[in-house]
């Protein structure tokens, strides 16, 4: 969906004075570094365990209400064209994605710590999950080897292109960060001027009040 449509649906306005105070660029190098990847070589980024495809019989037992809620949402939309719930649609999509990641991660964790408490709970105590976890190591090793060979044979111009795109994004982030800092400094300066003006006005008011009391005491 286009940015303009998001703004319309959310009732957002970009005409305010705080428009430039929001970060609009993701710091890709920082995100890669936080995920323990080499931020200077984005072409090496790969999640090997994403090759694991959780069995349907396991997936349907984790957040089992997702499919029913999605079906109900589709039926409401078909019955009423105005019954569109974008937030719910995106939430359900996010939960599907999270379910997949959860099962993948737990399969890897099971190979390292099979006695963890979570593996006493369904569906992670089932033979289907244990068989899935048992095959995960070989699948991940194969994916890592495939990625290593692919990166080894990756043309240098593609690597340079990816690094250039990352550098461009990083520069854009730095420009926006400096612009935000300048905006905040300008706002702080304006607030300081307003504070000084209020102090002067308050002082003048106190002086006027004191002068009035002195005049009342005169014979």
TrEMBL record:
UniProt-recorded name of the protein: Ndc10 domain-containing protein
InterPro entries per UniProt: Ndc10_dom2_sf, NDC10_II
The organism of origin for this protein: Mycena pura
GO terms for MF: DNA binding
Domain of life, per lineage: Eukaryota
Pfam families: NDC10_II
Domain Ndc10: 3-129
């Amino acid at each position: 969906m286009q940015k303009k449509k998001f703004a319309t649906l959310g009732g957002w306005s970009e005409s305010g004075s705080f428009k430039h105070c929001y970060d609009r660029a993701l710091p890709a190098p920082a995100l890669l570094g936080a995920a323990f990847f080499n931020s200077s070589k984005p072409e090496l980024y790969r999640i090997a365990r994403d090759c694991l495809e959780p069995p349907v019989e396991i997936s349907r037992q984790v957040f089992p209400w997702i499919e029913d809620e999605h079906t109900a949402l589709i039926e409401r939309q078909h019955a009423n064209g105005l019954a569109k719930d974008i937030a719910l649609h995106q939430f359900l999509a996010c939960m599907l994605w999270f379910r997949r990641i959860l099962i993948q991660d737990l399969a890897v964790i099971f190979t390292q710590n099979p006695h963890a408490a979570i593996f006493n709970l369904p569906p992670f105590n089932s033979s289907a999950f244990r068989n899935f976890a048992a095959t995960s190591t070989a699948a991940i090793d194969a994916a890592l080897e495939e990625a290593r060979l692919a990166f080894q044979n990756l043309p240098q111009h593609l690597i340079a292109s990816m690094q250039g795109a990352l550098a461009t994004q990083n520069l854009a982030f730095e420009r926006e960060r400096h612009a935000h800092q300048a905006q905040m400094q300008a706002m702080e300066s304006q607030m300081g001027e307003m504070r000084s003006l209020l102090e002067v006005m308050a002082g003048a008011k106190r002086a006027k009040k004191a002068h009035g009391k002195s005049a009342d005491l005169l014979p």
